[in-house]
Write a structure and sequence with these properties.
By secondary structure, the protein is of the alpha/beta class. The chain is built from 23 helices and 11 strands.
């Protein structure tokens, strides 16, 4: 007994010493001395690493073209949008088929001219042909030699694997939305009931709806508590990245934030966000908007046309576009409006509805503890709470004490979110402190997506640089499956890989750290890895990220530049 007590005291003293060492470093990652690069060494070798590019400071390169006359409307410049040499070859001709439009086709039918100007094929074989037995891009594919005959006909394998992406919208569905022909009976009826009662109807059950518009619940309620949850992440939470996380064992995935108004209007880019991979066995769609009727219509459309397990209402997005339009975190200051939105979505959808919140708009006006107790009454089945205000965005530390306070008054399962990127932190919040019913992980998964495996195994995984590069190779394959193998698809995959790399480079291998685990807010001093590849993967320079992408996707265009889109990839 005395020996066990002595061991506990030694462990406590060691932990206290480690925490003291962390405090002394003041936000600097505790990297072992033998891996640190001293300033004088950098100056002598001329290899001082470039400072991390902060998105808020970065400016796109100026154009040499003449500026437009004053007073004329100027289009906003788009970063990372090097004009891809769009081949104008007709898609039918590219597949070796006859074009139904003939001479009236607006695309080129000169396949010989296209092939003569096309860059050399990339090394390897087409992922679409290998997996599905055929390539839908024909000679436009950057790997076309692997599935094209000498007379430009396409080879098709007899045993083709069925497509794995669900929720693809047919052209006629998009046209119906654009022409306002799509009907939303459940939303329309609920809006009428709300207006008649000047508030929520007295009884919100299926029986309160007319027989013709009655909700037909076909999906079972989800038991959320205790499951690992990959946070919905704008841009970087794309389908290929979610597939990577599923490979590491995450339970719940969610789409990127989709604007309800754009879905109802039939915008193709927004409808594409609803896609789900077959491996995502517990999948939701996150909707954002400021009007209850539009949110209801979007939820009803998703329920009717997509395979989803839940719909998430975004009440946490801090970006100006959402906030200034009255959506996202702006709803935190308007509880009555938020109530109507949640109730309408619940009435319109035939699946579970969840709500993602922040603590408040400003640190002086925390409101989540007032909203969380009402979630069950409004019909929501789960709440997720990011422990920061809208004003904080991603700065400072997440307030887990406040999350715990909200958890105590939550009538539905409540997941906490913020700064978790290790299995130790995960289980500390969930078991040791019992601060929530689950943990949603966002940036932590971008930095180390294998965190989900660490959580399930309750141990640190010192993943090698080679294994990390293999993971990026897998992302490249997933990206080409999703965005395509033509020139545009390759460049789209490259851009999203670079967006991810703006987070991924922040990972510090455990073997380099004096104290575990790595913390979200700890900035590493200049260091080298245990191999050249490990050093390259840790580089904060966008030019090095482009080099990594070229190892996997071939050379980038000489004029290609990249600036991270997200401000949340910075440490401050």
């Amino acid at each position: 007994m005395a020996v066990e007590k002595s061991r506990e005291e030694i462990a406590e003293r060691a932990a206290a010493t480690q925490e003291e060492a962390r405090r002394e470093r003041r936000g600097e990652a505790p990297i072992k001395a033998e891996y640190l690069v001293r300033r004088n060494e950098q100056a002598e070798s001329g290899s001082e690493p470039k400072p991390e590019t902060k998105p808020e400071e970065a400016k796109p390169e100026t154009s040499s073209e003449a500026k437009p006359e004053p007073g004329k409307k100027q289009k906003k410049q788009k970063r990372n949008r090097r004009p891809v040499e769009r081949d104008n070859l007709c898609r039918k001709i590219a597949l070796g088929e006859e074009c139904p439009f003939g001479d009236t086709c607006k695309s080129s039918h000169d396949i010989q001219a296209f092939i003569a100007s096309k860059p050399k094929d990339l090394e390897g074989t087409c992922v679409l042909f290998d997996k599905f037995g055929k390539c839908s891009f024909g000679v436009r594919c950057r790997f076309s030699s692997s599935h094209t005959t000498a007379d430009h006909k396409q080879i098709v394998k007899e045993q083709a694997q069925p497509a794995e992406e669900l929720n693809r919208m047919d052209r006629d569905v998009q046209i119906r939305l654009r022409k306002r022909l799509e009907q939303f009976p459940r939303t329309k009826e609920y809006e009428q009931l709300w207006n008649q009662a000047d508030g929520p109807p007295a009884q919100e059950t299926d029986d309160s709806m007319k027989t013709a518009c009655k909700r037909a619940r076909t999906r079972k309620h989800i038991e959320f508590a205790g499951k690992t949850y990959l946070a919905p992440l704008t841009t970087v939470g794309n389908l290929p990245f979610r597939r990577i996380c599923k490979g590491f064992g995450v339970d719940i995935t969610c789409s990127e934030m989709a604007l309800a108004s754009n879905i109802v209007q039939g915008q193709g880019t927004e409808l594409a966000l609803l896609r789900r991979h077959a491996s995502e066995d517990l999948f939701g769609v996150q909707l954002a908007g400021s009007r209850a009727d539009v949110m209801g219509k979007a939820a009803e459309f998703v329920s009717n046309n997509c395979q989803v397990d839940f719909i998430d209402v975004n009440v946490g997005c801090p970006i100006d576009m959402a906030f200034n339009s009255g959506g996202g975190s702006a709803l935190l200051a308007h509880p009555r409006k938020l109530e109507r939105i949640v109730r309408t979505v619940v009435a319109a959808a035939d699946c579970d509805v969840t709500v993602k919140l922040r603590t408040g708009v400003t640190k002086d006006a925390l409101v989540a503890h007032k909203l969380v107790p009402k979630l069950r009454e409004w019909g929501a089945r789960l709440g997720t709470l990011h422990g920061r205000t809208r004003q904080q965005r991603y700065t400072k530390l997440a307030d887990w004490d406040y999350i715990s306070q909200c958890h105590e008054v939550a009538p539905v399962p409540l997941f906490g979110d913020g700064d978790v990127m290790s299995w130790e932190e995960y289980w500390e919040h969930l078991e040791a402190r019992k601060q929530s019913d689950g943990v949603m992980i966002g940036r932590g998964a971008l930095i180390k997506p294998w965190v989900f495996r660490e959580i399930s195994e309750r141990k640190v995984w010192d993943i090698s640089a080679g294994e990390r590069l293999d993971m990026l190779k897998q992302f490249a394959r997933f990206g080409m499956e999703h965005w395509g193998t033509d020139a545009q698809g390759i460049e789209t995959t490259r851009r999203y890989m670079l967006e991810w790399q703006s987070f991924l480079h922040r990972y510090i291998p455990p073997g380099l750290l004096e104290v575990l685990p790595q913390r979200m807010n700890e900035r590493p001093p200049p260091f080298v890895g245990r191999s050249d590849l490990e050093t390259l993967l840790a580089s904060p320079s966008a030019s090095d990220w482009i080099k990594i992408s070229e190892m996997l996707l071939g050379p980038a265009h000489p004029d290609f530049t990249f600036v991270p889109k997200h401000k949340s990839n910075s440490y401050s």
